[in-house]
């Protein structure tokens, strides 16, 4: 993949006590909606503040459309709309007053799009800024950011304080911006909204990038997940043993001698199997710790048939298929971190 429209290269900001971001690298392509997922304190806001030029890196650099935000902040801000994680308004009376100042600052003369945003979000701009609820303040910040109609949107947990219906309205706005070709970087700790609108997502934890993945590939290339309930623990253990004893598929079309090594995959499935294996293994089975008669099975599409056939002769009670969504993928990463 080519260097990103927004590029983070080996960025480090160390606040001490393992706080900050450490040697992180990201490339966001032009026109892409890129999600940034992590728990509170994981480093999301620190990364975004470097993108905005608010912080100077200890090492590494950030480039936004080829410009360094720390050294060239005015030039960068001509192309960037920003929704901060913590909203602080200037000392003005109403939302209307604030929008007038913002429009002057952004050079906005046509208020058609601003009014569209106000109507869509159900915002009353005549309300007193200091008396607004958290949700109303968030809507005001969204309008103020998007009214500039700029090429790049950088948003730090932009749906904070919005109710579920208004959150969906905001996500529809993000989809509209994507259709315009905008480049969008948004942080969140809400899995559903990242899955709904993003093309790719980076997972950050303890200031380090744990993974960057395509959400399309997550939906289509990850292993199929099954929960197989057997009549008893002995049957479950026997099934797991059978799976572990299965030979792997060959990576090539060469057929090994009978009974040795691997056996050939069906034509056209090798790439899919490789993608699936990279995350959870082409074929993995384990007994559930809470219910010893239940087996969890992770299997690539190419291996599903023989994995199910391995239950032959065993007392199967039920077979349920689940899909590894972003939340499950995220939690698996953190479980591995804890075990290590």
Quick summary:
The chain is of the alpha/beta class and 340 residues long. The chain is built from 12 helices and 15 strands.
Structural notes for this entry:
The structure is a single chain. Strands 5-6-7-3-8-9 form a 6-stranded mixed beta sheet, with helices on both faces. A 4-stranded antiparallel beta sheet has the order 13-14-10-15. Strands 2-1-4 form a 3-stranded antiparallel beta sheet. Residues 251-261 and 263-281 have low confidence and may be disordered. It starts with 5 loop residues before the first strand and ends with a helix. It is α/β, with parallel strands linked by helices and 340 residues long. 36% of the residues lie in helices and 26% in strands. It is built from 12 helices and 15 strands. α4 (112-121) runs antiparallel to α5 (134-146). α6 (164-179) links the parallel β6 and β7. The longest helix is centred in the middle third of the chain and has 16 residues, at 164-179. It has helices at residues 44-51, 73-77, 95-106, 112-121, 134-146, 164-179, 191-197, 215-220, 233-245, 270-280, 304-309, 326-339, and strands at residues 6-16, 19-28, 33-37, 59-64, 80-83, 152-156, 183-188, 200-205, 208-214, 224-230, 249-250, 263-264, 283-287, 294-299, 316-322.
């Amino acid at each position: 993949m080519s260097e990103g429209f927004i590029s983070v290269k080996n960025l480090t900001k160390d606040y001490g006590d393992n706080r900050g971001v450490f040697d992180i690298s990201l490339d966001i392509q032009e026109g892409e909606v890129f999600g940034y997922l992590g728990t509170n304190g994981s480093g999301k806001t620190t990364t975004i503040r470097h993108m905005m030029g608010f912080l100077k890196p200890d090492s590494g650099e950030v480039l936004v459309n080829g410009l360094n935000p720390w050294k060239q902040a005015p030039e960068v801000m001509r192309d960037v709309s920003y929704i901060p994680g913590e909203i602080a308004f200037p000392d003005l009376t109403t939302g209307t007053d604030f929008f007038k100042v913002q429009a002057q600052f952004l050079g906005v003369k046509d208020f058609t799009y601003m009014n569209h945003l106000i109507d869509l979000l159900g915002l009353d701009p005549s309300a007193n800024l200091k008396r607004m609820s958290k949700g109303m303040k968030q809507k005001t910040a969204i309008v103020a950011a998007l009214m500039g109609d700029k090429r790049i949107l950088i948003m730090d947990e932009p749906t904070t304080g919005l109710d579920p219906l208004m959150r969906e309205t905001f996500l529809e706005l993000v989809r509209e911006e994507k259709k315009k070709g905008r480049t969008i970087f948004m942080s969140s700790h809400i899995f559903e909204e990242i899955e709904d609108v993003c093309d790719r997502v980076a997972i950050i934890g303890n200031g380090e990038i744990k993974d960057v993945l395509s959400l399309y590939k997550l939906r289509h290339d990850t292993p199929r997940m099954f929960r197989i309930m057997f009549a008893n623990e002995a049957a479950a253990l026997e099934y797991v043993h059978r799976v572990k004893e299965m030979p792997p598929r060959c990576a090539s079309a060469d057929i090994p001698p009978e009974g040795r090594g691997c056996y050939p995959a069906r034509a056209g499935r090798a790439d899919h199997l490789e993608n699936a294996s990279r995350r959870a293994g082409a074929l993995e089975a384990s007994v559930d710790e809470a219910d010893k008669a239940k087996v969890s099975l992770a299997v690539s599409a190419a291996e599903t048939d023989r994995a199910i056939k391995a239950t032959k002769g065993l007392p199967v009670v039920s077979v349920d298929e689940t899909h590894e969504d972003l939340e499950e993928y995220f939690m698996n990463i953190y479980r591995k971190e804890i075990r290590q």
